[in-house]
Design a protein that fits this description.
alpha/beta; Alpha-Beta Plaits; 4-stranded antiparallel sheet; about 425 residues; 7-stranded mixed sheet; single chain; 17 helices; 3 domains; Rossmann fold; N-utilizing Substance Protein B Homolog, Chain A
Length: about 425
């Protein structure tokens, strides 16, 4: 099992050096082509778990080290091992043994005997001193909540009554939620299909099904045939909020990977253009549309520029703009440690270019749905307020969701969905051109 520790430590190390986990983990796995499926799965769990609680784990490790480690590979192996000792059910003796084995496999210039002795001593000291170490961290919010201090402070100011719950929710395992294509099967019939295959699930709203336990995508009944898609319930609100009718011209800007694109086409027979700046990611959109047996015109282009536009206005625009992704950290645990406070302003500036550029493409009387997967106000209502001040022809509309879309109260925070057990954190603002 030490191979799983090695793979996870490699991935964690890459993330701490600035690489996205979705790239770091496959790269780490590629270095261990002989790893068994069980070892690869365990490595993924260890990678996500270590990064999810990195703020806590690192705070423990700092106390245990007399001076910072100069070899970040050893540092990452210790992080993974301490995660296991804090949050995993693995036997403590086994974890320590495996960490010593993992560090012994490191290539030079690390002296193996020194490294093995160091790792063994640090982890055994952790086990002996765990209670005393924990007591010293009682007032350390980064250790308590496992988020950067700037992130904690921002939520305290913007959500004085909810910040703790938001942080705790972000450290939970996310649910696996499906969107049922009710043009192909009713949600009741799909639940019966799951029941026949002994897959436990519950329903939320009109089209969503939450699986009690995650299932590999290829084993989800009806997935390959386009009967269902994997999509968080919060993200499933976008298409109903835009509320398009048949034959309307619709633009889905920044559309990759295509979840909302497919949903719009499932709800109405519209003439849809999917726009994204990344040609490779657009290929994934096309793959999703092929699976769903749906059609759209896909265009490579920058949403902040109009060079790709043919000048014909759209009746509806979904502006799913780039953002900090601060509302989906339970799915992307590396975001907490890759983001910097200065990144918020950078995304705000990018959004401020996209929104007015898309606005000129909207027909009079048309609707634009501004969407982020962020919980930071600067990117959300703050961005919309600035836009409204500079565009007299824009009106922010109240939301009208069918009653069967409960338990979401999208009006409670003026379009901001607070992350919960049922859904991730999203922001929605519906704008109409006067």
């Amino acid at each position: 099992m030490y191979i799983s520790q090695q793979i996870a430590a490699n991935a964690v190390n890459q993330v701490l050096l600035g690489r996205n986990l979705t790239l770091a983990l496959p790269a780490a796995l590629a270095n261990f082509s002989n790893a068994t499926p069980q070892q690869r799965g365990a490595a993924q769990d260890l990678s996500y778990g270590t990064l999810r609680f990195y703020g806590e784990i690192d705070a423990y490790l700092v106390q245990l080290l007399e001076k910072p480690l100069t070899d970040d590979r050893i540092h990452s192996i210790l992080l993974v091992a301490i995660y296991q000792l804090l949050h995993d059910k693995a036997d403590a003796f086994t974890v320590v043994n495996q960490a010593v084995q993992a560090v012994s496999q490191l290539k030079r210039p690390v002296p193996k005997s020194w490294a093995k002795g160091l790792v063994n001593a640090i982890l055994r000291n952790f086990l002996r001193q765990k209670e005393q170490l924990a007591a010293k961290l009682s007032g350390n919010e980064v250790a308590t909540y496992a988020y950067p201090k700037w992130w904690i402070n921002k939520l305290k100011v913007q959500y004085p009554n909810h910040w703790q719950g938001m942080l705790e929710t972000g450290n939970q395992h996310p649910p696996m939620t499906l969107r049922v294509n009710t043009q192909k099967i009713s949600i009741d019939d799909y639940m019966q299909l799951l029941m026949r295959q002994d897959i436990e699930a519950t329903t939320i709203g009109a089209q969503a099904v939450v699986l009690t336990k995650p299932v590999p995508v290829e084993k989800i009944p009806g997935f390959t045939g386009g009967v269902v898609s994997v999509q968080d319930y919060g993200a499933q609100l976008a298409a109903p909020l835009l509320a398009m009718s048949n034959n309307m011209r619709v633009l889905d800007a920044c559309c990759a990977p295509g979840g909302k694109t497919g949903h719009i086409l499932e709800l109405a027979e519209v003439l849809l253009t999917g726009l994204d700046a990344d040609e490779v990611r657009l290929q994934r959109v096309q793959s999703n549309l092929d699976r769903l047996e749906l059609q759209a015109q896909l265009v490579v282009g920058d949403a902040s520029l109009s060079s790709w536009w043919d000048g014909v206005t759209f009746d509806g625009i979904l502006a799913d703009v780039p953002c900090t992704a601060s509302g989906i950290v339970r799915r992307h645990v590396d975001i907490k440690w890759l983001r910097r406070e200065a990144d918020v302003a950078s995304f705000v500036a990018q959004q401020a270019k996209i929104l007015p550029n898309l606005w000129q493409m909207l027909a009079k009387g048309g609707k634009l749905l501004y969407v982020t997967c962020s919980v930071f106000n600067e990117e959300n209502q703050g961005q919309v307020d600035n836009f409204l001040q500079n565009n007299a022809d824009a009106t922010q509309l109240p939301f009208e969701l069918p009653a069967n879309h409960a338990p979401v109260d999208i009006t409670q925070f003026n379009g901001q969905l607070i992350p919960s057990i049922a859904h991730d954190g999203f922001f929605y603002a519906l704008l109409q051109k006067n």
